Amino acid sequence: MDLKGRNFLTLKDYSPEEITYLLDLAAELKDKKKKGIPVDIHRGKNVALIFEKTSTRTRCSFEVAAHDLGMGTTYLDPVSSQIGKKESIADTARVLGRIYEGIEYRGYGQEIVEELARHAGVPVWNGLTNEYHPTQMLADLLTIREHFGHLKGIRLVYMGDARYNMGNSLMIACSKMGLDFVACAPEKYFPNEELVKQCREYAAASGATITLTDDVMAGTKGADVVYTDVWVSMGEPDEVWEERIHDLTPYRVTEAVMENAGEKAIFLHCLPSFHDLKTKIGKEMGERFGITEMEVADQVFEAPYSKVFDEAENRMHTIKAVMAATLGV
Length: 329
Ligand code: CP
Ligand code: NVA
Known about the structure:
Layout: H1 16-35, E1 46-51, H2 57-68, E2 72-76, H3 89-99, E3 102-106, H4 110-120, E4 124-126, H5 134-148, E5 155-159, H6 165-177, E6 180-184, H7 193-206, E7 209-213, H8 216-220, E8 225-228, H9 240-248, H10 255-260, E9 266-269, H11 280-289, H12 298-301, H13 308-326
Parallel strand pairs: 1-2, 1-3, 3-4, 5-6, 5-8, 6-7, 8-9
């Protein structure tokens, strides 16, 4: 499998075999990390990490993974570079492509990371856009595979705003890899029809199924993986909080939901999460709307079946695999 020179912008561009290869490579790199075996195969190279939105996991994963591979990193934060204000994306791409061997981009529209990739001349990795979060998908698939030993036939239910990066990406990942995907949300939060149609084609090839339902108990019945994400994503206006809390509270992952899921079900969340009042926004919403948690109940988040920190760790191993492979293993 040769992925050298490829961009990593959405899993739509990757075949199931290529995704499996990246998961296998991530597992191998993880094993080596645990054993202290060096993997600095890209010594002397450098990567640029552009973050137009904030991050903990993705930034740390790219930095540590790059360092483990022997590479240097430059972090460009949301305010202190010229990008978008004084310099176009195409010009930025052409400059960074002369200096770095690879570029990570986190920001707004998918068309921005695509524009960057068109002009950079080096691999570009999507660290999250409004539409997709492909590196998160590899971490999620690896976590599911580690836990259940396989991917095919796993029933994954995504609860919440299924129209955004996480819902879209999980539907793509599941349909490509043969998992049964359920979006459990009010109808207006279902993924767009065009993407659903495309994913149904992937599903026909992989044996996956796609279900869209607004019925919580029917949707989560017998699930292997219950997944959720914040109700308001980065870059969305504060005004939408009230409507989201109103619309999505019935879709909170509660203990009743987990009891309705399969006996061995696990809970996943890309994080960060509002499962208590220990964050600024969580506290503010708590005061405004009289709630103590949002997308997931604290008891679920803290339960033994919650694998969110295994999942977060896997961000680093899978991002390392993406960089290692696209820079040429
Ligand atoms: N899951 C995820 O992308 O986390 P960060 O926003 O902290 O990078
Ligand atoms: N949907 C969230 C995902 C964060 C990892 C957001 O875009 O903010």
